[in-house]
Write a structure and sequence with these properties.
Keywords: Membrane, Transmembrane, Transmembrane helix. It comes from Actinoplanes ianthinogenes. This protein is mainly α. It is 72% helix and 0% strand. It is built from 4 helices and no strands. α3 packs antiparallel against α4. The longest helix is centred in the middle third of the chain and has 34 residues. It is flat.
Length: 116
């Protein structure tokens, strides 16, 4: 009785591109990894040996000064906004609002909302 080996894996000629394509992808990933490692090494070499604590303190102090200036100017700006709100509006602005209110005479509630 002769036993003949049977190919149960399908037609192997159609998958002939899978091996070279896999090799190409592996080589491409290796090249990308080497390029990334070289780039990281260059960046690490540019860093100083140690960071100066004095420069850090100066930076923190400058940020604190800027925050104080911002808070100080922010309080003045809020007072100016309140003063502008309480001032009497210009007559030109009132005439524009009145003209818009006259154009929209659909209902009293619509013109009332526009006049505000």
């Amino acid at each position: 009785m002769d036993i003949i080996a049977v190919n149960n894996f399908g037609d192997t000629r159609d998958g002939g591109l899978a091996g070279p394509m896999g090799l190409f992808l592996i080589v491409l990933m290796c090249i990308a990894t080497v390029a990334l490692i070289r780039n990281m090494n260059k960046r690490i070499r540019r860093l100083p040996d140690s960071f100066d604590a004095e420069a850090e303190r100066e930076r923190v102090a400058e940020i604190a000064r800027l925050n104080e200036d911002l808070e100080r100017s922010g309080g003045d700006a809020a007072a100016d906004v309140e003063a502008d709100r309480s001032a009497k509006p210009d007559s030109a602005a009132e005439s524009e609002v009145a003209a818009v209110a006259e154009d929209k005479s659909e209902s009293a509630s619509d013109s009332g909302r526009t006049a505000r």
